Amino acid sequence: MKQHFWDRDLTDLAESLYDWIARFWKEDVWPLFMGVSFFFVLAIPLLIVLAILWYLNEIHWAPEHGRYKVGLNTPCVTCNHASALTSVRVVKLSSHTSLRD
Question: Which candidate, 73, 72, 76, places its Cα nearest to that of 91?
């Protein structure tokens, strides 16, 4: 066995192992971590929108029929009662005075 195995050689081995781990972290792990974290930072607005839509779905929110409501395909109670008399478009215009203005 060499004279300075325990103090010099093992210290050099530990230092080279530490240098290898630090170089591996800086060259391989850190760029991967930065890329993944950048992806999640860019996804935050989408995650906020998805959270809002999930919350609205959980509370069973639905738009009401009436003025300033866009995209609602279900007719209101007045339209259901008068739908047997005429077409839906005429019923909606005749039963809602706010829609004719």
Answer: 76
